[in-house]
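The records we work with from here on pair a chain with its fold. Here is one such record, which you should read through line by line:
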Amino acid sequence: MSTYLTIRQTAEALSCSTDTIRRMIARGDLKGRRFGRLIRIEASDLARAGKPVSPLTREANYGARA
């Protein structure tokens, strides 16, 4: 049986706002499931919400300058 979290619980787990969670669901970064009017997020999907960030180089930030 899967464990489902509310939007508020998910926001607390990821240390962000509920609006951010709703935007992540809308973008497809986080999978939300509807149960009637309620939206729930499977606890196992939280690992997918955090994507690794690689450091940007100066060229990536400002473009290569000649």
